[in-house]
UniProtKB/TrEMBL annotation:
All copies of domain Dienelactone hydrolase, residue ranges: 2-59
The organism of origin for this protein: Amycolatopsis deserti
Protein name: Dienelactone hydrolase domain-containing protein
Annotated InterPro entries: AB_hydrolase_fold, Dienelactn_hydro, Polyketide_trans_af380
Stored PANTHER family: SUPERFAMILY HYDROLASE, PUTATIVE (AFU_ORTHOLOGUE AFUA_2G16580)-RELATED
Pfam families, sorted: DLH (PF01738)
Length: 95
């Protein structure tokens, strides 16, 4: 993930300070760990912000019917999960 963020920060049309990451299963853990340990892009602040939001979460999304593995490659479940996550990213990361 760090290599991907490093690359994105060099792309002209990417706002380096507004890069977000989303992970499923182990990727979720990797995403948080990357944010906690990557100090190049102000990630520690974002990690602190993330933790404060998690403690007071306003919305928990449960996509009924899907099993753990379905969220990797079963279009029905992937689509529903992405539809739930997209508004958050648009609101918080859109430039």
């Amino acid at each position: 993930m760090r290599a991907a963020v490093d690359h994105l920060q060099t792309v002209d049309y990417v706002a380096a300070g507004r890069i977000g990451v989303l992970g499923v299963c182990a990727g979720g853990g990797y995403a948080v760990t990357a944010a906690m340990t990557d100090h190049a892009a102000g990630s520690l602040w974002h990690t602190t912000e993330l933790h404060s939001r998690v403690r007071s979460a306003e919305k928990l999304v449960v996509v009924e019917g899907g099993t753990h593995m379905d969220f990797y490659d079963v279009p029905e479940y992937v689509k529903r999960a992405v539809e739930e996550a997209t508004p958050f990213f648009e609101e918080n990361l859109a430039g």
